[in-house]
Amino acid sequence: MSADARDRTGYAIACAGLVVLALFVLVPLLATALGGLKTLGALRSDPFGFPLHPRWGNYGGILAGGRYWRLLGNSLLIASVVTAITVVLAAMAAFVLAHLHFFGREMLASYLMLGLMFPAATAILPLFIQVRDLGLLDTYAGLILAEVAFALSMSILLFRNFFRQLPVELFEAARMDGCSYARIFVSITLPLCRPIVTTVAIITFVSSWNNYMLPLILLDTPSRYPWPLGVMDYQGQYSTEWQLVLAFITLTILPAILVFVLAQKQIVAGLTAGAVKG
Amino acid sequence: MTLAATRRKPSLRGDGLGTVLLFLPPALLVFTIFVVLPIGEASWFSLFDWNGYGSPQHFVALRNYVRLLAFVPFRTALLNNLLVIAISLCIQIPVAIGAASLLSGPGRLTVVMRLILFLPYILAEVAAGLIWRFVFDGNFGLVAVAARELGMNAPFMLADPDLARVALMVVVTWKYFGFHMMLVLAGLQGIDPELRQAARMDGATGAQIFRHVTLPLLRPTLRVSVFFAVIGSLQLFDIVMPLTAGGPGNATQTMATFLYNFGITRMKIGFGSAVGVVLFLISATFSIVYNRWVPGER
């Protein structure tokens, strides 16, 4: 075989591999969505097939009840507040760490980067005690502050790297004109840093929206649960009725899929930028 | 920045100091209270036998660590974390590189394919775990039905210790290889296409170009990929809980689920903190050694 023909055969095999990979990704998702349209019996006999008599009632019942909407509402509230606070705190800290020179600056910067070195799981036990002793157990305040704290390291790193690339002349000129640092931050830095705000906001929002461990440890009352806890609860309650569980899972991941389809460019860029630029 | 340099360039004139004192403390405070203090406290608590109420009184020195390292479920958990790391490095990243090099071009089909393969990464771990719990279910799952179609006994994958471990590895691969693929794609975009064209002109085959041109240039990307694969594998928790909750018989515990199942649900704060400290030491040692000894450029 010539090198060229070998290349072509190899390419064909590789493309077949890609198709298998795509099926590996999609089949479980499609089976989940379709399973939510079946009866339990149909699920057992034919989980792959398209349901001949789709039972829209599985989905309808969940959409008509308050539980699903409350879970999504809770998650939306928590993730939005976490994102807003993280962006503000991280941008402020990163501004000072990027543009002002003061003793101990690099030490403080390294200190704030500590969070990148280890997973949140290492600290959850004392974190639980800490939040309990602050009287914030089972409150959104406790959960939100904890999530912000764990999002800060990466966010500050991304903001600081971005701020450092802004031209220094801009700040020097503003200082000459008697501009205060706070004024520079609000009128010069923030308007220029929209791309990095988007990145940080996407990373923070997605990780809060999907977060399971921190709410599991810090919340107690089911009516306050974000959706990852709620869907686990639902599965525990209806564990013998997979068709309902599947419908519930499908509906809870639907918002993420819709947003992903609508804003894929920003989301892919945002979620990978954290790794690449960090 | 040295002290001398700071003195020569005192730029905290005017409102500088005020700005520092206004902008920095909020982040510092939240970070210290909710991240740093708990880590510090974990190492203190781990020296006590304590149920979390009152203050820790019963000092046991390193006995929690001794018990921990001799405890079979914890050793299993540690091994499982290592297994996940191995799978991530030996299967996920190579698959990601392969998929990325096939999907680096333009074209609508390639773009759609990329998004499909990335899709699992944006879904919550909990949802992924539950979906695969269904796929592996011995009565209703896809694997069981496929086995029955082929005339075999339907396996209860999640009820068998070894199969459950295999199942966990499958789900981890499903969930994360797309992330590494996107990183590699970003890396490929940074490579000058002329380099590959030049190699082709010189008569190199596709495989040779990949081996001698593309792969070396991907080094900085792969360095990041490996780092995230290892740190991510060490903190595996959200996928395991809905899939197996660490069972059957602790076969699929990871260090994080072990910490939750044996430390938090039983309120053994000292013992659980020891787990956290071990996990911290492993992660931090890895981060420091990796960043120091594995250089980014060339």
From TrEMBL, chain A:
Matches recorded under SUPFAM superfamilies: MetI-like (SSF161098)
Annotated ranges, domain ABC transmembrane type-1: 72-263
Sorted UniProt keywords: Cell membrane, Membrane, Transmembrane, Transmembrane helix, Transport
GO cellular component: plasma membrane
Compartments where found: Cell membrane
GO terms (BP aspect): transmembrane transport
InterPro entries in the record: MetI-like, MetI-like_sf
Domain of life of the organism encoding this protein: Bacteria
Pfam families on file: BPD_transp_1 (PF00528)
Claim: Transmembrane is one of the keywords in the record: yes
UniProt keyword rRNA-binding present: no
Membrane topology summary: Multi-pass membrane protein
Membrane-crossing residue ranges in chain numbering: 12-37, 76-97, 109-129, 141-163, 184-206, 242-263
UniProt record similarity statement: Belongs to the binding-protein-dependent transport system permease family.
PANTHER family, sorted: ABC TRANSPORTER PERMEASE PROTEIN MG189-RELATED (PTHR43744:SF12), ABC TRANSPORTER PERMEASE PROTEIN MG189-RELATED-RELATED (PTHR43744)
Protein name per its UniProtKB record: Carbohydrate ABC transporter permease
